[in-house]
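Recall that a protein's primary structure is simply its ordered list of amino acids. Everything else, from secondary elements to tertiary packing, is in principle encoded there. The following example makes that idea concrete.
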Amino acid sequence: MASHGYDSGRLNLPFVGICTFGKYPYVEDWDSIDADAAILGAPFDFGAQWRSGARMGPRAIREASTLFSFGHAGAYDFEDDITYLDPAKVRIVDIGDADIVHTDTIKSHANIEFGVRKILQAGALPVVLGGDHSINIPCINAFDDQDPIHVVQIDAHLDFVDERHGVRYGHGNPMRRAAEKAHVTGLTQIGIRNVSSTAKDGYDAARAMGSDIQSVRHVRRMGTAAMLARIPEGVRYYLTIDIDAFDPSIAPGTGTPSHGGFLYYEVLELIDGLARRGEIAGIDLVEVAPDYDQSGSTSILAAQLLMNTLGRVLHHRRR
């Protein structure tokens, strides 16, 4: 049996050291990224229409992720009988944050896009920590010189507003902007529910532009396998996760909570199935606003979901 490795080197407990994501190595030089996956923070929330605070999401998720810093031996899942994130097989780095210029959405988004492009140029999987959901816009833009992607959105809100009072790049617009891109082949929007940020004409436009829209109750009625069967198989996916897809009973720390949301394993099983179904080529997780959750459970949920998502994505790629 392989040793866990704790008999040598530092114990490196979660509360010791600097809070990179998962306590993975920090790479300051974006021209020197050598990894399977790279974490980029996008601490931007100027696109929020109600409660701000998601700019603090990347920092909170990183701190929470230290709980899941697996030391020397990866993360063994006894249900799957798999050791995920084995450091002998997988290299993950944290490249810090995109520079954010206060009040300047265009420049801030450009800086986020630049970071994602650098990760893609290095051949790594970009994993972006938001920030409000508008940060998805530059992330999707960065894939314009890559092979096509199908966007899978897990969210409470459709985010398909075209324009409102001249605003086209807020957190209610990203899926509309994605649907307009030639390199986006379609969208699957999962978890959409309740009174939404998008009016009926937005839903009509989304369906006309090729979106498959499913609510939490739809998914529960049909089951995970049937939901996955609706998503094109054998293609490249961009996965965007809004933390408000989860029920606020487990994720209160967000700007626009919506009751009736998913629970943890419902989402993880969807993501695991997606990673088996095709290649997840990019990920963002957005709208964690830690100041609305003094328990820290929302940030822990986000970190745990990302760790498990990375484990499954990288494992299924290597099968």
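The first helix runs from residue 57 to 65. The chain has a mean pLDDT of 94.
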